């Protein structure tokens, strides 16, 4: 009896010890995972002048379903999962966002590739707190402001695609898309790398960079195609009864297109000004598309650059009229003529 009793006790001890070790190992792995999650991202300093972020559902296998609760976690980079499309609610407010004290933008990180505008009533960093509790709340007025632009089928303000067959081809057929963000003292940036973007009979890679600086209502956008294609384009969403304004610098090296009027989601009286500044040597033509006022670039393998600008009347210390908006655009155009850049 004792001969069998001692080995049984010993065996039980081994099982218990093994279970404790496994439990301890699991607990350590969990703590490590949670530690990585907690230290992977920190909210920006309260005195930060610029900010960019990319935020995905935490602890959740990706599924193309609408938002059903749960927490988000910020990441430095993200490879889009296969099958990702619009309104999947996997990414907080549908893509990366970037801002300074005056303005903010967000990018639809899916086939639409449009850029939307954050109308800001506060001159502080707000994006870490947007869309956390209720996915749809940023579409409605709040203390900090709201999402204000209805992009629809357009490229929004400064999104991009390829103009062909009398319409803009967006990014429905891409082999792989990787997005990443970077914050530094003097600027914040979003990087989008596309592999195998197929339009018509052509396939290219495209690198896009969005940068924002401590001062100004603008963001700089750089596009670097791997091969020459006709029709690479950006633009501004069109609204009925909102005319397009065009102007070039005195030396003819820079130009802008702009719109101003009741073109927001807020109400029928709310005023918004939008503009794109471009280098004339890089542009083939300005063209009306079905949904956009388009700036179409010349075929090139070199980087093309442009600036987008948004001025909302409810912005703190903002531009109060169309006259002030146009005056601001002309000042920016003079700066570009003198310095070749805004930043």
Automatic annotation (TrEMBL):
Biased composition (Basic and acidic residues): 22-36
Region Disordered, residue ranges: 22-46
Pfam families linked: DUF4861
InterPro entries: DUF4861 (IPR032342)
Domain of life: Bacteria
Name by which UniProt lists this protein: DUF4861 domain-containing protein
Species assigned in the record: Zunongwangia mangrovi
């Amino acid at each position: 009896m004792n001969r069998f009793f001692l080995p049984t006790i010993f065996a039980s001890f081994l099982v218990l010890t093994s279970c404790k070790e496994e439990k301890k190992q699991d607990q350590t792995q969990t703590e490590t995972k949670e530690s990585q999650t907690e230290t992977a991202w920190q909210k920006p300093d309260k005195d930060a002048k610029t900010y960019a972020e990319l935020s995905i559902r935490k602890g959740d296998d990706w599924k193309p379903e609408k938002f059903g609760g749960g927490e988000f976690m910020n990441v430095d980079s993200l490879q889009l999962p296969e099958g990702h499309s619009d309104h999947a609610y996997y990414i907080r407010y549908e893509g990366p966002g970037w801002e300074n004290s005056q303005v903010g933008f967000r990018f639809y990180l899916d086939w639409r590739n449009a850029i939307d505008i954050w109308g800001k009533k506060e001159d502080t960093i707000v994006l870490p707190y947007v869309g956390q509790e209720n996915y749809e709340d940023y579409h409605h007025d709040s203390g900090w402001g709201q999402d204000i632009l209805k992009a629809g089928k357009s490229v929004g303000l400064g999104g991009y695609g390829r103009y062909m067959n009398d319409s803009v081809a967006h990014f429905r057929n891409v082999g792989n898309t990787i997005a990443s963000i970077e914050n530094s003292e003097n600027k914040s940036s979003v990087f989008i790398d596309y592999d195998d973007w197929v339009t018509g009979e052509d396939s290219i890679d495209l690198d896009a960079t969005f940068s924002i600086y401590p001062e100004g209502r603008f963001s700089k956008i750089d596009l670097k195609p791997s091969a020459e294609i006709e029709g690479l384009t950006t633009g501004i969403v069109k609204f009925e009864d909102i005319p397009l304004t065009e102007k070039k610098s005195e030396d003819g090296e820079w130009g802008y297109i702009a719109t101003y009027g009741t073109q927001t989601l807020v109400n029928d009286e709310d005023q918004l000004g939008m503009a794109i500044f471009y280098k004339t040597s890089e542009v083939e033509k300005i063209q009306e598309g079905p949904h956009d006022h388009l700036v179409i670039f010349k075929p090139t393998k070199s980087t093309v650059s442009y600036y987008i600008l948004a001025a909302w009347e409810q912005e703190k210390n903002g531009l109060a009229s169309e006259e002030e908006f146009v005056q601001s655009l002309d000042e920016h155009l003079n700066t570009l003529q003198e310095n070749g850049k805004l930043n």
